Amino acid sequence: MKLIYFISLFILISIYSSVNAQLCPNCLKENESCNIDKNSLDTCESGTSCRNISNGGGYICISYLEEGEKCGPETGQCIPGKRCLEDVNGIYRCLDYSFSNVGEECTLDSDCSTYELNCIKGVCKLNATKTCLYDDGNCQYDEYCSCPSTDCYCKPIKTEGESCNTDQECLGNLDCILSICTKLKLLTIGSICRKSSECDYNNGLYCPNGTCQEFVEPKSTSCNPNSTSTNQCPEFQSCSCSDGTCYQTSVYPPQTYLFTKKDLVQCAYDNGCSVAYDFNVFSSKSCVKKNCRKLMCEFRSQTPFKGKQKGDDCGREAYFIDLLCNSSFKITQSIASLLIISFISFVLIFQN
Ligand SMILES: *[C@@H]1O[C@H](CO)[C@@H](O)[C@H](O)[C@H]1NC(C)=O
Ligand SMILES: *[C@@H]1O[C@H](CO)[C@@H](O)[C@H](O)[C@H]1NC(C)=O
Ligand SMILES: *[C@@H]1O[C@H](CO)[C@@H](O)[C@H](O)[C@H]1NC(C)=O
Ligand SMILES: *[C@@H]1O[C@H](CO)[C@@H](O)[C@H](O)[C@H]1NC(C)=O
Ligand SMILES: *[C@@H]1O[C@H](CO)[C@@H](O)[C@H](O)[C@H]1NC(C)=O
């Protein structure tokens, strides 16, 4: 269940990202006209989006509006991490949103990190007409949202060694084994395994055939980015438009589990932060971002990864990652891409 926190990071990133396609994009600068057709290769450069200007000029690449600027009625005008919302004076502006947890300060309902929370007398509180509804963000940091039937309520979370009935009751990186919240030890090379998550993925191991083995990275080869054939590159790689070389664009098996590492949940807990499913990862005002920024950004750069350094996406991924991490960490755009590719399917299943 704690996995959903990580997935929400990916959802947010993926909303603003275009997955690297095999075909090369046509990068457009600010104010150039663009085509929003699905099959079009037109891609507005970072910091802009393709929008219909209301004066009849058609679709052009327009810069995002910054925080505080007036916006609306069309959506998608605000810089990622800001939303077009009514301010205290009833004027629509690009505002920060979804950053305050239960008990934290707010001025608008939209400041609160979940839909169930309302800004009541300057503090985010669970609305009396609502329940925590599967979202731990509606509970205190040391509670989880339990929904045994149609009713949901916040219950204390259990730490290592405490008795449990399900994994959900145990804090982030613990599993409920023999009714005790337990930290699982990862298996070493050659150990018998059933799934890759049991092997020491931190050291590149996975479970290909019943034993933990080292994953061998496919060799980089050259390719033709204009070709529509999808099998020019080895599995997990695709052709880069910048230099006609195959680079990793999806997660290698052991890396899958790096992203589900639950250190972030532990960091949030240690710092007294509850984490909502859909919190605004771009906002620097949330408790978890204030305390765990390093982890939120670092777990991407940890990936042993030699991806596309030059944007095959007109610099968009790099721009979003930069917004997310405030330039504190150098992260290649491709790491974000691989996150998206690997999680999008899971997210879709999860949400439907
Ligand atoms: C794009 O158009 C806007 C508004 O007309 C103008 O302020 C801006 O400087 C233009 N940008 C470029 C790169 O031409
Ligand atoms: C762009 O917006 C204008 C007015 O808002 C509308 O009349 C026009 O049909 C739109 N153009 C396209 C291509 O959607
Ligand atoms: C609780 O939610 C309902 C429905 O969304 C809303 O009408 C009501 O104003 C909320 N209560 C508070 C105190 O904000
Ligand atoms: C399968 O397991 C054997 C050891 O039993 C190992 O030598 C072999 O490399 C494994 N295959 C793969 C694809 O890792
Ligand atoms: C790919 O197509 C573009 C535009 O059609 C062309 O300029 C470029 O040289 C081609 N690249 C290769 C490697 O064929």
Automatic annotation (TrEMBL):
Any coiled-coil regions, as ranges: none
Keywords: Membrane, Signal, Transmembrane, Transmembrane helix
Listed transmembrane segments: 331-350
InterPro entries recorded: Diff-Dev_Assoc_Protein (IPR052326)
Nucleus found in the keyword field: no
Signal sequence interval, chain numbering: 1-21
Protein name as catalogued: Dickkopf N-terminal cysteine-rich domain-containing protein
Species the sequence originates in: Dictyostelium firmibasis
